Structure formats: structure tokens, C-alpha cells
Predict the structure.
Amino acid sequence: MTTTMARKTEKNTARKPSQPHVRLHWRIRLRRDKSLVIMTIPAVVLLLVFNYAPLFGLITAFQYYDPLVGVWHSPWAGLEQFTTLVQDSLFWGALKNTLYLSLVQLILFFPIPIALALLLNTVLSERLRNLIQSIVYLPHFFSWVLTITIFQQMLGGAGVLNQFLRQHGAGTWDIMTNSNTFALLVTSQAVWKEAGWGIIVFLAALAAIDTHLYEAAAVDGAGRWRRMWHITLPGMRGVIVLLLVLRLGNALTVGFEQLLLQRVAVGHNAADVLDTFSFYYGIATNNYSYGAAAGLFKSVISLLLIWGANKLAHFFGEDGLYRR
Amino acid sequence: MTSDMNRRTLLSTAAAVAGTVAMAPLLSACGDGGQSTGGASTKKGLKTALPSFAPNSSLKPDIPSVAGGADIATDPGFLTYPAQQARTVDGVPGKGGSYTAVTPLWGTVPSPSNSFYQAMNKALGVDLKIKPTDGNNYLTIIPTMTSAKKLPDWLQLPAWWNSGFNTGGLAGTQLADLTPYLAGDKIKKYPNLAAIPSGAWQAGSWGNKIYGIPSYSSSCVVAGTTFYRRDILDAKGITADQITSAADLFALGKELTDAKRGVWAFDDVWTYLFPFWGVPNKWKVENGKLINKYETPEFLDALDWHYKLAKSGSMHPDALAGQEASASTRFYSGKVLISGGGTGAWNLTDQQSGSAANKDYRRGAFDVFAADGTSRPSLFLGNSTGVISYLNRGLGKDQIEELLAVADYLAAPYGSAEYTMVNFGVEGVHHTMVKGVPTFTDAGKKYVQPQTYSFLASCPQVVSNPGADQVTRDFTAWQAANVKYLYKPVFWNMNISLPASLATADAAQSVEDTIKDCCHGKQKVSDVQAAIAAWKSSGTRLKNWLTTNVLEKYGTGQ
């Protein structure tokens, strides 16, 4: 497996972006890949039933949807939900918060798993590496409720830190309810919970790099930093770009539960993102159609973002989501 | 009583889901801006349709009901389970018909055809195929039936749904009109149903017709109150009657807070305390005109007090951080001494949980007072029920009469033979009498404790906590002391079909969010005023619609 991936990486690195593809006729490809296609049918059916068929529900964004009478009998609203949406300052506030949180997380969160993977890769003792891996993976399995409760118990107004400060006559430190630093709080929670889990993909990419390259570089006199710069990072580039493309495509998804749980703590102006907006101003007020309109808006923008990011990846000669 | 507590737990869960169900009129969106078939009812129109009220006098409560204003009275209290379980239904109510029923259940769904269901079918004389359905997903299951027009014969539709869905549209199209069977004295054929207060029947009426059969009805529905740790305050020599104004309460907060010891006076109190400023639940009528609570100066005064409270340091930091799930833990552990909450919290389970943390635990509640300390205190009444069942319109006359007879059995008064059967099952199989109290056996815990039948019909609420008499005495005493301050709010128990285009204005989520932020010290009163100003254009449309389509046509419902 490792050898195959290594070969693939070498091949990818070696391939020139301008090299033309020779595409076989689809019938020939179908005959060639028949068994593979048959194997994918269950997954395709699953996708159709659970991912594509529910798209029909988007029609509710153009209705005054009433669950008791169903989609067929709910009155038609045309574009009214969207008209109201674009005039709603809370919606634009939620969009702004979403983009801001996304940017902060991209800058502060995204590089951390890469750095962790590189650090972990330098640990020679397998036992120690396994131990560290287990410890950093663990928070991923905690629910957001538990994670935020831990943060609240430790850093909240009545938590361990502030109670210690209070009992020693020092001023308290408002961490959990400060709307100005909320983006940092949310990102630090995400790092605590998910950074360890995020290293898995990068470790796999590191494992795919041919160790002979390091040996050859070392023989040529390359130091640790030069080996990282000229071998490790280029070897990981494909995966980093792929994850970056996916991250950009998901730029408007910055967490739901995490923000829902802390919305009251910092106020809705700071914590509302597109997903919580759909929930509070759609589902929670029984205005499903309004929530669906906000959701559809988000999906369209996300689609454009992922398309743009993929184009960018192709432009830089990477595969992105698929090979051109 | 375990079962009683279980039911309360379910109801408080339901109320939590419903939010302030008891505080809101029963609104229903009808989508296209026009009235749906099931619109509001007028007082005059309902007069001929409403069933006569004939309270049951066969059982004498230990603590009798205390009357307040018209249609307002406290729930009677029972300190012991009646030893003589009187029969209130002659023979078997059913005639062997076969029916299906769907109810919500917040708990483990019992297996079908279990020994309790079989015993109930025998007692009822029908083959009632009851299908309790997960309460948390009830909202996703029922629409599939209603939109396919394939309802069971008997169906429970929570009244709090009316605020978002077109329940009124189902009335008369899919749900049976019960007026011909129950109007006026016709209900006397079903004496246990006749003991359900008129207000509850009104909550199940649409367009001057009776459609719903109420469960868990009460003439003293108060959404919630401001509780305090009575054991701790008593020990400090502080009694509730010393608190007669908002200023007193604020000062008490300062006195009780000891942050270094990790004790704060207040948890969240806004939801149930703001009415003490004379703020209406949603609307009030002055000189024949509707006025929203947001437009009243009292509302801003109440907000200002709560903002100052949040900034005073008397509120627990976790409450300010919106950690609602741990509110009861803070209260039980004495980290918080004053907390708002639904009156359903005043029960045996609460006493047991509190006592586990502190053996002296005792819950108390402040009496209703006027914030300024001088005006007459007042508190709006909630809707008389939130749990209403309906019969399928496709049923024939005989079938409807048979099911109403079954409902009459299910609504038998507290402590009667029928009540014991419905709530505790068969003695020796599902329960045994321990110190005069029906106590579930293992089979009872499995099949009877997850209550189902009472969601189809049940007797009016009583207060009963065998083994915790103090709880029953405290709760009934609080009701008795405050019943005189209760008043029927505008649109009380009225089912209003609201156009879906006004649903956002009615929910006023942006204003409510800002209110919450203000009560947690995150935003100022002026921010709430700005949110109200932004809401005002849609709020005015809502007000105009309600004035034209409800107030002028149907009155205030008071």
C-alpha cells in the first residue's frame, strides 16, 4: 500500500501539468472497469436515496411550508423567503460571523495538524509515538457538550481558574462570555478537540514518502530543515491542497453544536452563524421555509467556493477533488 | 407517587419543548393569509357548543380547591391515595369495536400486546391498538400521517403545535367535530368528561366547534414562578413575605451572594419574573386597541431591572453563560438560592433529588408581588391544557360515541377504580399497595409507568406526592395564596389561525434573543429598544391582522 502510494506520489510529482490526457471511449472504459462500476452501485444508490432524493425538500424554500399539510399542499411563496432573507440584517450578521470564524480557523487551526504530524514524524520511539497519538486523538471522541462543559468548568466565571483568582483576591478573567474574543475561544476549543484527529491524513501522506529520498538527500549533505523543505513538504503538498479545497468548500460550515451551546454565553450577535441562523430563525420558530431558504443560499455559495478552490488547485497543477 | 411524578416529568419535558406554551395563545399558521377552516371561536358562539361543567364530587380531597376569578381555581391536594377506590363508570364502556390510537411517549415504548394493554382492552371493552411514539420525534412522524390523510382513529396533537402548524386546517377535514356529542348537557352522558373545566374544552375548539378532548387540564395553569431555597433562607431568618417589591428582591440578592464561597443568589429569573412588573404575556387591550408587551413602559422597566441584576454580581456566572442544563444541580447544591422555573418542578422527584444533596432541602416560591411594591399584584393565567386528543373524521356516529365512552373511563377522577386501572394497572400484576400507595411491580414499571392512555384523556390535575406531604402542602398553599392575583390574558385559550407570513413577526425571535442577551448583561436596554424598532413594521402588520381578524370578530376571549 505504502509503495503504491509512494509510486503514485512520484508519478504525480513527475507529471507535467500541460501533459495531454488520452481519453478512451466511455464504452471501452466501461467494459474495462465493469467490475469496479458494479461494486460502486450500492454506494451510488445510497447516495441517491439519502443525499440526492432529499434535495426535493428544497422546494420548501419557495413555500410557506406547513408540516401538517405536507409539501404538496403548502402554499406557494415564490421568492418571498429569499427577499426577506436578503433584507434581514441578522442574516448578514450571521454570514459575516461565519466568514470571520472560518478565516480565523483557517489561519489558526489548519496549520496545527500539519505541524503536529511533522513533529510526531520525528519521534523515533514507536511506543512513545503511539502514546502521543492516542492522547491527542482522544478529545475527538468527546461530544461538544462535554468539551464545552470542561472548558466552562475550568475557565468559566465559576470555574477552577476564576474561583482560584477570586479566592486569592485577584480579578476574574472573562474567557467564556467575552464576545470580543469568541473567535479565539471557538478556535482553541476546535484545536483542543480536533487537531489530534486531523493529523491522521497527514501522517498517511508522510508515510507515503519514499524513505530513500531522505537517505539520498542526507548523503548529499541536506540537513533536517532542507529535507523537510525539499522532500517532506512537497510530498504532503497534494494532501494539503486537497484538504484546503475541502476546507474552502466548507468555509460556511464552522460548527453548529459548538456555537449553539455557547450562543447565550456571548450573545446571538457574536455567535450566530448561518447554521444557527437557519435553526433559530427557521426551525425553532416553526418557519421552516425561511430556514430552508437560508440553507439553500449557503449551499449555493459553498458550491461556488468549492468549484473556485478546485479550479485554483488545478491551476497550481494539483489534482484537487478530481484529476482533470 | 412514582407514576404521578413520571407524568409530571413528561409534561415538564413537553413544556420545555414547547417553551412558553402556557403563556401563548393557541396560534396556528394557515399559510395563505386567509382564515383556515378551523379559526378562532367567539365567546358567544362557543356558549352553545361548550360542554356543561359538572365537577366530580365523589372524592373529597385533603386540601380542597380554592376559587379565584371566573374559571380560575387551584388544583385540589391529596395527601394520601384514596383508600376506597370508588367506581365512576358502570360496566364496560366499549362495545367491542376495534380502533387505532397514536400518542407521544417520552420514554421507552412498551411492547405491543403486553399484559397491561390486554387488561386495559378488557376493562374498556374495545380492541384499542395503541401506538405510543417517541415524543422527541413526534413532530416528524405525525405530518407524514396528516399529509397522507391517513390518521389513526384517535390521535394526540399537542396544543403547542398550534403556534406553528395548521392544526385548525385539520379540524373538520380530518378531525371529527364532537360538538353534536358533547355540547351543553349532552356531555352529562359522560360524567367524567363533564368534570373537565370549560377552559380546557375551549382550548380544543375551532370555529365555535369542539374537536379536542383535553388531558391534564387545570384551572390554575401558571407557566412558572420564582423559586428559592426555603431551607437555607429560613435558616437565615428570611421569609418570602418579606419580599414585596423588586427592590427587596434585588437587595436580597446582594445579601445572599458570597462569590468567594461559590454561592450566588440568582439563576435566570426573567421568564417567570417579568409579569411582576404588570407586563402582559403578549398582548393587552387598552381602549379597544391591541398593545404588544414590547410597547409597554413596564416591559422596559422589567428589562432594566434584569440588566442591572446581571451586572450586579448576584447572578451565577454559569447562568450568565447560558448553562441551563446544570441549573437544577446549582439549585440542589445550594450554589444558587433563587431560580425561575416551571411549577411542574414542585414535586416528589424534585424533593428526592434535593434531599440527596442536602437532607433539609425544601423548595419555596415567592408570592406574586408588584415590582413597585405598591400596585396590585397580577399574573396572567396559562392555557387550560397543552395536551389534546382528536378523533378521526372518518369514524361513524356509533364509533365516536363508543370512543367518547372510553375517554370517559380514561378521565375518571383521581383515586377512583378506573384511575387506578389506567395509571397503575391491575393490582398484584402491575402494582401492589404499599402503605396505602399503589407501587409498581417490575411489570408495572415496564408497561404502565410509561404513560400512554392519559394522553388520550385524563382527569383534571391534582397535587399529590404521597410520602412527601410537605411538598403537596407547600405547592397547594402557594396556589391558594396567589390564585386571587391570576387573570385571563387576552386571547386566552383561543385558537387563532395566523397567516404563515406573520409567523416570524409573531415569534419575534430577534427581539427575544436580544432580551436574553440584555438579561445576561451582554446588551443594553437600548439595544432591545433598537431590536423592537426593527421588529415594529412586521409587528404592526401582525397587530393589524389580529385586530381585524380576531379582536374585532371574536373578542379577547377573557
Summary: The first helix of chain A runs from residue 2 to 14.
